[in-house]
Amino acid sequence: MAAFTLAGCQPAPQPPAFQATDITGAAFARDFRLTDHNGQVRTLADFKGQVVAIFFGYTHCPDVCPTTLSDFAVALQQLGPQAERVQVIFVTVDPERDTPELLKQFVPAFNPRFLGMSADPQTLRQLAKEFKVVYQKTSVKAADDYLIDHSAGTYVYDPQGRLRLLVPYGSSPDAIVQDLRTLLTAS
């Protein structure tokens, strides 16, 4: 009886402290079905056992997209061998211009393991709704000369495929590394 009483006095285990926003248990961004820049259809289940970071953007983006990919590339360098258990996915919100060939040149330039993914416009709209991502053409000068305003957060899943974090744009590579390590060591 004394052991039972003492067990009640023990502090409850604390959830991990993350730098990013903890969205564990969110009822959105549950899965995806996209074609990677190598032509292979992928779902979240294909990356079971890895931490997955998924970001929506476009290759012609002047600032947010290359900055985010660069920050994750630096973070993976800092992770060392643990980086093998992290998959970064860049989903284009500009399937009109971002061909698989362009994605294959652009995305791996930041890190050879990064994957560029795409979908047809209708599937992309449905996926954006599921992920609560917004995007819209702006500054249209010509049919192939425009910018796209888009959501700038990165969703991060743990190795079991559970959505855990929303990394805001501008997070430092050090903050990203800390969160990735926490997810990798907790599994």
Question: What does this protein look like?
Answer:
This protein has 187 residues and is α+β, with helices and mostly antiparallel strands. Helix content is 30%, strand content 27%. It has helices at 2-9, 64-79, 100-106, 121-131, 173-186; strands at 21-22, 33-36, 41-43, 51-57, 86-92, 115-118, 135-142, 145-150, 154-157, 163-167. The strands form two sheets. It has an eight-stranded mixed sheet, with helices on one face. The protein has a two-stranded antiparallel ribbon with strand order 7-8. 30% of the residues are buried. Residues 1-6 have low confidence and may be disordered.
Secondary-structure element string:
HEEEEHEHEHEEEEH
Q: Which strand order does the major sheet show?
A: 1-10-9-4-5-6-2-3
Q: How many helix segments?
A: 5
Biggest sheet architecture: 8 strands, mixed
State the low-pLDDT regions, or none.
Answer: 1-6
Considering DSSP H and I runs of 4 or more, what fraction of the residues is helical?
A: 25-40%
> What Rg do the Cα atoms give?
18 Å
Mean pLDDT: 92
The N- and C-terminal alpha carbons lie at a distance of 34 Å
Backbone shape: globular
| Strand residues, percent | 25-35%
Structural class of the secondary structure composition?
Answer: alpha+beta
Total number of strands? 10
What order do the helices and strands come in, and which of them pair?
Elements: H1 2-9, E1 21-22, E2 33-36, E3 41-43, E4 51-57, H2 64-79, E5 86-92, H3 100-106, E6 115-118, H4 121-131, E7 135-142, E8 145-150, E9 154-157, E10 163-167, H5 173-186
